[in-house]
Predict the 3D structure of the following.
Amino acid sequence: MAETKREIERKYEATGETPVPDLTRVSGVSAVVDRGVMELDAVYYDTPDLRLAADALTLRRRTGGDDAGWHVKFPVTSGIRDEVRAPLADTLPGELAELLRSRVRGDEVVPVVRLRSARDVRHLVTEDGTLLAELSVDTVHAERLPCGAEATWTEIEVELADDTDPAVLDAVEKRLRKAGIRPAAAASKLARALTETGQGPRPAATPGTPGTAGAAVLAYVREQTEAIVTYDPAVRRDLPDAVHQLRVACRRMRSAFKTYRRILDRNVTDALGEELKWLAGELGVARDQEVLDKRLRAHVTELPDTLVLGPVKARLRHRDAARGAHARRQALAALDSPRYLALLDGLHALLADPPLRKAAGRDAGKVLARAVRKDHDRLAGRVEHALSLAPGHDRDLALHEARKAAKRARYASEAARPTLGKPARRLSKRVKGVQSVLGEHQDAVVARAALRELGLQSHGFGESAFTWGLLYGREEAAAAAAERELPEVWARASAPKLTAALTR
């Protein structure tokens, strides 16, 4: 069974003669305990074109030490990685292979580097023996596979102990720097090994001619593709907000295909857009359930105990558990499907050989500004239509369609921000305000339907439906408040000077 460990460490340049200074002079460190030398042997795996290394990921099979097994390391931020571990086996465990699927896709991972290290370990401890950090002096021998090129070096590594203040690392580094020891240039042993034994991963090519509409849109498509690839393992690990971010990346890219269809050929992007819609829909079950559950729980918590009649909280917990588990199974099934892999292959093929149209070669500012204005006009038509209707079911549907148009207009302006700058950023912010109001309205509509269902269930079990009815009334009031707020928010987002400022 895989387990995850947060790894917070820093690496430093050293030679075999580099003395480690007295670290008992570091605040809080009472002793440095010699733990002896460990012999580590690790084989690192990647695709032949080094996709994992390009994204700062490492996959290795290591023997020796107290954590022998298969390890996948995901970057979190500088000096911090999440290490997912699985027991030692002859082949890559399936649970780790799944975490790499969005990057590896249908290709095979092969051995690329073997690292054999003699690790001289010292523990930095407090007066009562509590471990603060582990310092090791590693003598590393790297062998490039299969060519056999070699490199050898020594480095110092300091890893923070679990549940310890990161300020300890700052204090240790200050002491090391005073002794003339400097941070390592390479982010990891693997990165250094690849560089010193041949060639590291090649940077991704930037398609399109700089300054053209094609280059601008393709940069945005690449950004969203990378987001999908990145959030895939986060969804599998059930990390907070991962489903939402992956779904948003799908929607942003699909929206870009529609907005910028004069730049990218629809004969290619329409099919990909439908697949992105499918994936967002499969993920949406989990995300929508998460949003609704959080909303209903918050509303119940806000009520005085005297107004919570019957097993309201227990019924919500039961509903959340049942539907949440189903939604997660559905999301993971989509990510494990051949259809999803085909979508990833299609997106990478588009970036490798972009289906550019004539407008793609024109000035990015003019082409993108025109597309953003067109989406804004589309939003204006939907908002005005919705506001012309009487309150009720038809207006609810029209406001939901306006919300979709607001998302598209917002995504269009976001994609154009690197090109159009401040005007696109300002428009995006105003349209986001419209989207938020319309989103609150739609959430209230969806919550009413769920509350009606819960009320009927409670009544059927002989329980009081009073609380569900009370919450239903509150959601009606929330929807009405959003409708009253919309004209003012829309007026700010539809000011003529906003779209006029896009013209360069």
The two ends are 57 Å apart (CA to CA). The longest strand covers residues 31-46. The mean pLDDT is 93.
